[in-house]
Design goal:
This protein is of the alpha+beta class. It is 50% helix and 15% strand.
Length: 381
């Protein structure tokens, strides 16, 4: 057991950190206020390999490990959690689904464009009345000759309005419940597919979250992704990996908030000394630093096991649950340490506090993570 990062991993962390500081930090509040996803960042993210982190070189990917993936997402989230969320959804949901379950033609058709950043990837599972209970989805895909016809709508979809390619789950046989759900690849601009309401969000505002509507949207049978009826089962595998990404995002956000709080505590003076001299503030910082290290270890362990080819359902959910709840606590303490200045937009504390809440909700709420872990620990007791 060796807890030290390799020299290559140190270099990767430094490279992504420098990129995030130079290219993202100066614009974070502007993107947040405007709810603007900076498409102009895509070529730069792509040139660093950040839009194809774990995909094979033959498709243009960086062919890095799951642990390396965590390092990248962590460093982006430390500076701008919303951009990290978009990068995680692009890599970990849409592109991963195509890489893992697509056939060779589909991989060759879509992965290079996604990896080069020519298009952003979206992934549509959630519906207005099917969130945690995703298998209750109402969107259908009906076979008509050599085509599938999609009807229904997906909501809360990251890149729902700006994504060029969406992987969408739809019921192909309602009588089979979750075994009757299949996945499809739909390209932006396909007649019958439109973006609906763009959400006006509490946090993660630079990351587009929109409804996607399908009305007699006709796609060729070649757009079926994976086996018919296996869409939901494949989705659970995608989420096992995706949750490691959200755990890494949580670790990065918490790290950013902790650093901001530490910096402020060493500068701010009250009662004739820096507030970092007060034990009450020291303990908050100590607890934050300790909890972040714990969350990071759980996250890297899940990623390491994934790299070994193990199934990580329990480990991914534990990492996501612990890291996201840690991040909520650290972001809260970060505001508290800033006092009134934590409540205004001149300091980064308030944005971490707004962004962080998504992490205990997206890709399965904390309650659902506990349910998944309970099943792993107890079976269907
Ligand atoms: C910014 C953002 C981006 C997103 N991006 C995507 C995306 O790209 N693709 C996508 O498909 N989805 C996406 N989502 C959707 C997200 O995954 C869902 O919001 C999430 O799974 C929760 O579903 P829900 O909102 O319908 O809540 P609900 O399922 O209605 O849950 C409401 C509450 O009930 C609790 N609850 C539900 N069932 C149980 C149970 N069995 N036991 C105990 N408690 C329970 C929940 O934990 C929660 O506290 C995104 C959401 C947001 C906010």
């Amino acid at each position: 057991m060796d807890f030290r990062p390799t020299d290559e991993q140190e270099l990767l962390r430094r490279t992504v950190r420098e990129f995030a500081e130079a290219e993202m930090r100066p614009h974070v509040m502007e993107w947040d206020e405007a709810q603007h996803f900076p498409m102009e960042l895509l070529p730069k993210l792509a040139s660093l390999g950040l839009l194809g982190i774990q995909f094979a070189e033959e498709y243009g990917g960086a062919a890095l490990s799951a642990v390396d993936y965590c390092i990248c997402i962590e460093e982006l989230a430390r500076v701008c959690p919303a951009i990290a969320l978009s990068v995680a959804a692009h890599n970990g949901l849409c592109s991963s689904h195509i890489a893992l379950f697509g056939n060779e033609t589909q991989r060759r058709q879509y992965l290079p464009r996604l990896i080069r950043g020519e298009v952003l990837g979206a992934w549509g599972l959630t519906e207005a009345n099917a969130g945690s209970d995703a298998a209750a989805m109402r969107t259908t895909a009906a076979r008509q000759g050599d085509c599938w016809v999609l009807n229904g709508s997906k909501n809360f979809i990251t890149h729902g309005a700006i994504g060029g390619v969406i992987v969408v789950m739809a019921a192909t046989d309602r009588s089979q419940s979750h075994r009757g759900i299949s996945a499809f690849i739909v390209e932006h601009g396909t007649p019958g597919m439109t973006a609906g309401k763009k959400e006006n969000k509490l946090g993660m505002r630079a990351s587009d979250t929109s409804e996607v509507i399908f009305q007699d949207c006709r796609i060729s049978s070649a757009q079926l992704l994976g086996e018919e009826g296996k869409g939901f089962i494949n989705t659970l595998q995608i989420l096992d990996s995706g949750r490691i990404g959200i755990a890494a995002l949580s670790v990065g956000l918490a790290q950013g908030a902790y650093e901001a709080a530490r910096h402020y505590a060493l500068e701010r003076r009250q009662f004739g000394q820096t507030i970092a001299g007060f034990q009450a503030i020291q303990w908050k910082l100590v607890d934050a630093a300790t909890r972040i290290e714990g969350a990071r270890l759980l996250t890297y362990r899940a990623a390491y096991l994934k790299d070994q080819g193990a199934r990580t359902t329990k480990e991914s959910s534990m990492a996501k649950l612990h890291a996201s709840e840690t991040a909520v606590r650290v972001a809260d303490d970060c505001v508290q340490i800033h006092g009134g200045y934590g409540f205004v937009k001149d300091y980064p504390a308030e944005k971490y506090f707004r962004d962080v809440k998504l992490l205990t909700i997206g890709e399965g709420t904390s309650e659902i993570q506990r349910l998944v872990i309970a099943r792993q620990l107890l079976g269907r007791a």
